[in-house]
Design brief:
The protein is of the alpha/beta class. The chain has one domain (about 1-215): TIM Barrel (Alpha-Beta Barrel). About 55% of the residues lie in helices and about 15% in strands. The chain has 11 helices and 8 strands. It has helices at about 10-15, 30-35, 40-50, 65-75, 90-100, 110-120, 130-135, 140-155, 170-175, 185-190, 195-215; strands at about 1-5, 25, 55, 80-85, 105-110, 125-130, 160, 180-185. An 8-stranded parallel β-barrel has the order 1-2-3-4-5-6-7-8, surrounded by 7 helices. Helix 6 (about 110-120) runs parallel beside helix 8. The structure holds erythose-4-phosphate (E4P). Erythose-4-phosphate binds near residues 26, 28, 129, 163 and 164.
């Protein structure tokens, strides 16, 4: 399973990329607004750092606007994946941009029916938001299971990108269900490294070693 960072923060991205576990980045208008400044420049810097897919979302809400903005975002770097919100305009724009060879991530997916439509128009990625579904007492991971099964049934090439991830169990479940990608905030990626028995085990090894050296 590929692991993406869900962030527009250069320091966070710089701290994780050297670990060799990061395959790409997702951003959204909220994340880029938090960073401020010139978002095109920031997206270019992120692409140069990661050298993998970097999702950049359109803010237009109509078909013509989404296509125009998507084409423009795609000129920033070859690694840019244009993110469009699900809906009639988004699905149509996904089809048009994909037809031109531009990679598209259909975002704000909350049902298997939406994921089916995104795949039919050639989306490169679909982003089901598991955390926001869990928040309204609906199983986010249940949706991932449904989408993976539907895509397998028809051999769709669209990759299932698990988004709105809140904790390490989401990541493990995404991998168990065969999702293609999981995008996580930095704190969730950090938490994947932690286990108290690892810390206790290392402390004991080092203490035993130190004791033996002083004898
Ligand atoms: C995905 O691409 C989105 O940027 C993101 O995962 C949304 O997560 P949130 O529900 O924590 O805002």
């Amino acid at each position: 399973m590929k692991l993406f960072i869900d962030s527009g923060n250069l320091d966070e991205i710089r701290s994780l990329v050297p670990l060799g576990i990061i395959d790409g980045i997702t951003t959204n208008p909220s994340l880029l607004a938090k960073e401020g400044g010139d978002s095109r420049k920031l997206l270019k810097q992120i692409c140069d750092l990661v050298k993998g897919p970097v999702s950049a979302e359109v803010v237009a809400t109509d078909f013509d606007g989404m296509v125009k903005e998507g084409r423009d975002l795609a000129t920033i770097d070859d690694h840019i994946v244009v993110k469009v919100p699900f809906g009639k305009a988004g699905v149509r724009a996904c089809g048009a941009l994909s037809h031109e060879g531009i990679k598209v991530n259909v975002t704000l997916c909350f049902s298997a029916a939406q994921a089916l439509l995104a795949a039919k128009v050639g989306a490169t990625f679909v982003s089901p938001f598991v955390g926001r579904l869990d928040d309204i007492a609906t199983s986010g991971m249940g949706l991932i299971e449904e989408i993976v099964q539907i895509y397998d049934n028809y051999e769709f090439g669209t990759e299932v990108l698990v988004a709105s991830v809140r904790h390490p169990i989401h990541v493990v479940e995404a991998a168990r269900l065969g999702a293609d990608v999981c995008t996580c905030p930095t704190k969730v990626i950090d938490s994947l490294f932690n286990h108290p028995l690892t810390d206790i085990g290392l402390a004991r090894f080092l203490a035993d070693w130190k004791k033996a050296q002083s004898q």
